[in-house]
């Protein structure tokens, strides 16, 4: 069961510049940074608020670290902007299975590692009215 | 001060079909619908979670109701997908003024009426790393 907007993933050309824009313009501070080698991104999580399921909502800023990453390809086509949205769930495996059974393409056979030790999968944007949609179970939920 | 992700605005060709996708795929129910004549959209708000500032986070589905609306123009160029993101604040006037003073273009001189009696304004996406960004004070906050 999806119980929160976990994050909005925003692709950018330069992570440091974009982090500074969000800090100086809105006052949002960096909560966490990491490099996800598998996804080919360097990322910063800005925590915006707590959520009623005990989790949080974040802005996730993403800079590609190699030219063949999916985010690099997306940026080259679209320019900077919202890359994906993510819903939080305590059971990414069960929800992914349930959603797949409804005919929506789930991009991974089993969830992969996302930000801060979370487990994540993605739904095909063409099956979701144009929205690349992530499902995420945070490290504290699994 | 921006204290929550208020909503993610998603543009679609057919509101009823898209509402049904979000209901049948994720279990999200319609919390509110309205037509905003000024913005030229018919919209549905799906409430996803409560937020730590006492507000809520929503998915906002938007269908243009006339061909010259900004959402219609956007859809014709981009196809269905994430149109904007919105941060919630108790003081949209003060925050808009503060952000304008930092050199970010604010699209309205004074906030206009948004979903459910809220007061809203928008920041120019070219000043926000490609993200059309809304600021919103809900009806219960103003």
TrEMBL record, chains A, B:
One of its GO terms (biological process) is L-methylmalonyl-CoA metabolic process. Signal peptide: none annotated. GO terms for molecular function: metal ion binding; methylmalonyl-CoA epimerase activity. The keyword Secreted does not apply. It comes from the Bacteria. SUPFAM superfamilies: Glyoxalase/Bleomycin resistance protein/Dihydroxybiphenyl dioxygenase. It holds the Pfam family Glyoxalase_4. InterPro entries: Glyas_Bleomycin-R_OHBP_Dase, MeMalonyl-CoA_epimerase, MMCE/EMCE_epimerase, VOC_core. Keywords: Metal-binding. Belongs to the methylmalonyl-CoA epimerase family. This is Methylmalonyl-CoA epimerase. It comes from Streptomyces clavuligerus. The lineage of its organism: Bacteria, Bacillati, Actinomycetota, Actinomycetes, Kitasatosporales.
